[in-house]
Each structure stands twice: as C-alpha cells, then as structure tokens.
Amino acid sequence: MSFSLHGIGVSGGIAIGYAHLTSNARVEVPQYMLDRKYIKEELARFDEAILATRVELEILRTHIPPGAPAELSAFLDMHLMFLGDSMIAEAPKRLIQETQCNAEWALAQQMEALVARFEEIDDAYLRSRQEDVVQVVQRVLKALTGHPSHLPLDVNFDVERILVAHELSPADMVVFKNVHFAAFITDLGGTTSHTAILARSMGMPSVMALHNARGLIRDHDLLIVDGRDGVVLVNPDESVLAEYRLRQNQWRIDTDKLKRLKTSKSSTLDGTPIELMANIELLGDIDAVKASGAHGIGLFRSEFLFLNRSDLPTEDEQYESYKAVAEALDGKPVTIRTLDLGADKQAPWGHTVADNPALGLRAIRLCLAEPGLFLTQLRAILRASAHGQVRMLIPMLVSFMELRQTLQRIDEAKDSLRKDGLKFDEGIPIGGMIEVPAAALSAGFFAEQLDFLSIGTNDLIQYTLAIDRADDSVAHLYDPLHPAVLNLIQYTLRAGAKAGKPVSVCGEMAGDPLLTRLLLGLGLRTFSMQPASLLQVKHQVLKSDLEELVPAAQRLLKNTDPDRTALLLNRLNGQ
C-alpha cells in the first residue's frame, strides 16, 4: 500500500531505499519492593549496569569512522559525562536505599524528574537536551534488563537502506558510516536536537517528528525520503519513483556545483559585497566552517560550555575554548555570544524556575543577576580577544538600563584584567541581539551605543507572534513572512544603517535560501547561518540584483493577504 508521511525535514536531500526497522522504544520498567537484605545486591547490580553502559559508549568511540564529524566524539563525551553525573549515577541509589525499590524503577523515576526540570527551561535548544538524558538512561535500563544494543557496528547491505526508528541518539549516529544507511527517519526529535545537528553535518537526508512512522512502516518497504520538504513516501508507484530518481540526480548535481562556489567572491550582480558567516555550537564545527568558505563566525553559542554539568566552567576552561576558536579562524571575525540560558532548578547557581520561563530570568537578565558568573565569562572572552578578531554579543537586550549595566560589567572585567596584567583587545567590538519587539523598536538607541547589532529571528518571530516554536499545536502559526516580523527586521536594518553600524541576521531565516533575496531587498548585507546552508545562500546572492529586489521586497512587506504572500515570494525569487 502506498502512502505518505509528513514531519520535519532536518537535513536536506533525497534518499531512496528499503526500510530497515530498529526497535529502541523506551524500555518498560517494572516496579517491585525488595527485602532489606537484598538492597546491597541491588546497589551492586545498578553499579554494574552503569559500568557496562560506560564500556558500551567507550566502544562506540573506537568505532567512529575516519572523516566523521568531530561532533560525534563531543556528543559521546557528553553522554559519558551524563553517565558520571551524580543525578544519574548516585541519586537512584539513594532512592533504592530509602524506598527499597528495584534499580530500574529508581532510575526511571530519576529520569522523569530530570526531564520535568528540562521542560521548564525557556530556550528551545537547551530544553531539547532532555533527549540526551533519556538516551543515556535508556542505555542503562537496557543493561539492567539484559537488552542488547539495537544497532550493529558493522553491516553491509546489498541495497540502499533507510533506518526507521522511534528515536535515535547521537551515539547511534556513530555507526552510520560503517553501516552505510542512506538516510534515517524517526518518530521523535526536532531541528534543534543533537541528532539533527549531526545529520546536517554529515549531509544525510533525514526527517524527524513523524510520530507514527515506526508503527506504520514495515521492514523492506520501499521508501523515498525528502529531507528538504519533510516528506516520506512509502511504497511509491513507478511514476512517482521515476520522478524522485530524477530529483535525486538533480540534487546531487546541484550539490556538486555548489561546492565550486566556495572560493567565489560573495557579491550581488551589481557588485554589492555580502558577508556570509557561520553559526557554531562546538569547536568541532570549525572544519565545516572552513569547508563552506564562510567569512567568519557570526554566532558562537557559548552556553554549550555550561550545559549538562553539575559545576560551572572555570575562567581558564572558557578562555581555552574561546581562544581555540579564535586561533582556528586565522584572523577572521569570531562573534561570541554571552551565556543565553533560561532559569532552571538544575543550574549550579540555584535560581528557581519562573511561572512563565519564556518571560523570566534568562540570557542577559540572568547574567546581570549573577555578577560573579558574568564576570568570569567576560574575562574569558576578553582574554581570548588577544588571539584573534573576537567580538562580543549580548543576547536578549530589552531595556536601556540593561545595556548600561552590561557595559559597566564589561568595563569592570577590563579593569580586573589590567590589574592582573593580562592582555586583551581594548577595542573589542560589543554588539547586541535584537530578539524581542521592544528591542527592534529601540534599535536606533542600541545602534548608537553598540558597535553592531544581530537579529535573532527565531526568538523575534516567537515573541512578536506569541508563538512557542517548540509547541506542535501552534507551530503552523510560526510565520517568518508575517508583515509584523518583516517590518521589525527592516526597521532594525534601517536603524543600523542610519547609525553607521552593521546589522546581521543570525536566526534560521538567514540560512533559508528561499528568503535570501527578500532579506537582501530589505537591506541585509550580513548573514550568519549553519555552515551546511552557506553555499545555497551564496548561490542566491550571486544571481541577485539589488535594483530589482528592493521594490519587490517592499511589495511583499506591504502585503497583508496571506494567499498572495507565496505568489509575491515566488516572483521575488524569479520563479
């Protein structure tokens, strides 16, 4: 029977192959009470499962194939760090002793408590890290219940295979290049998950959030995976199959052509230079940045250093990380965003979660509330500025008082470094993120006080339209082409131009080639995006003429008819 499934396309491209189902649904956990005399044995059984899981992850590390993304090792390190954290390795043992329950139940209860706390985090990227907690715990539960790992380490297929799973962990991704899957699809997951990040860095077509794919698809069903449109076709007829084979060949040809653009000068047909920067979360992303030919790093999300740990990174630890990125860029600009983290009970600094964390203590608000934490990071960033062209970016600025306090904290950090005799760039550029409507409408003031601005379109859209982009029930209302959003973007760009200060866009809009010409027409000259998207955006830049784009963009900006929006965008893109 032929049918189609729709989910979230997290990595572009088209794959055609036969389904290879894998079962990694959550282990069913029994609950039973133990006699006090068996508690010691139960604790030992739990410790053995932790050790077995650690050994399993270490073995996976040895099977990372040559040329695999550096993130694979980093994510396995993160899972190993989770495994050693007291919240997973020790807290369940206390529960076993206090309630005399079995190890599986104690661990499952601890997992649910941790997941609940992650759910309270405002930032969608950080909130999605709960997946890592679940994946690590599931491995331990499988060790406790005697279930083997579900993915083989070395399998050769005589035909193209597409992995179909309920969910996948980054550790599972390690074996992909050895197993030679053409693509993967999952019921769970989203664009900000580690698995999705890895899929994009590996160039593997993938669709996630399909909900029921694992239950509907059978082993050996013929599948077409369209990672761009988020569509999976099951047992297509010959005409559909022929059409997608043509699309697949064309996609491969287009991908090869794009690689030739790496060294091309980035400018429009009329000669206007356009800066194309990259966003990174990890030091391992640097190779992808260089392969894309990016002009630098427009956004380094520093919160990764603070993630999934029971203690705060030291100043030296942060400094070494920032320094390594700055030196790796060989003089190209590196924009480091200060900590952008929402309030969470698990945070080492101990703040409680607000009733509405999306509007609570997060990003610069949190940093100003914790001057010791902020000073440590500011000193680390400033010290790294002596090793490259480093810029500092302040997230979620809203009020003028916040900006004044932030600049005072930066001055204090500089004074402390001078007293310690440590070198830094005295003129390090300081920028602010425009992520809420209030900041966009005050962009003129912020542009006067700062060296540059960066528009975070993900949050700007979320706050402008009052849409939680992580909530499936309202995801269809998340619209980057809403007139209010486009007007705020243009207002910010014009404020920057008037003040003579550069303005970039570092949200998902910057990496969408369908929106490149629109943003150029609105006045954007600096884009920052995932490295994998850069050459597609560059292709659009090279064939754009600003004289034609500006009036077309203004027509779309003034349009209030949703039915006409797609037509105007197609015209603007020359389709």
Describe the structure.
The structure is a single chain. The chain is an alpha/beta fold and 575 residues long. The chain is built from 25 helices and 16 strands. Strands 1-8-7-3-4-5-6-2 form an eight-stranded mixed β-sheet. Strands 9-10-11-12-13-14-15-16 form an eight-stranded parallel beta barrel, surrounded by five helices. The protein starts with a strand and ends with a helix.
Low-confidence stretches: 150-155, 343-350
Radius of gyration: 25 Å
What does the overall shape look like?
Answer: globular
Number of helices: 25
**Quaternary structure state of the chains depicted:** single chain
Number of strands: 16
Portion in strands? 5-15%
Helix/strand-derived category reads alpha/beta
Distance between the termini: 35 Å
Arrangement of strands in the largest sheet: 1-8-7-3-4-5-6-2
Which percent bin holds the helix content? 40-55%
Average pLDDT, all residues: 85
Biggest sheet architecture:
8 strands, mixed
Spell out the blueprint of helices and strands:
Elements: E1 3-6, E2 8-11, E3 14-21, H1 39-62, H2 70-84, H3 86-89, H4 91-99, H5 103-119, H6 124-127, H7 130-145, E4 161-165, H8 170-173, H9 176-179, E5 181-186, H10 194-202, E6 206-208, H11 213-216, E7 222-226, E8 231-234, H12 238-259, E9 275-280, H13 286-292, E10 297-301, H14 315-328, E11 334-337, H15 364-369, H16 371-384, E12 390-394, H17 400-419, E13 430-434, H18 437-441, H19 443-449, E14 452-455, H20 457-465, H21 483-499, E15 503-505, H22 516-522, E16 526-529, H23 534-542, H24 546-558, H25 562-572
Parallel strand pairs: 3-4, 4-5, 5-6, 9-10, 9-16, 10-11, 11-12, 12-13, 13-14, 14-15, 15-16
Antiparallel strand pairs: 1-8, 2-6, 3-7, 7-8
Helix pairs in contact: 1-2, 1-7, 2-7, 4-5, 5-7, 14-16, 16-17, 19-21, 22-24, 24-25
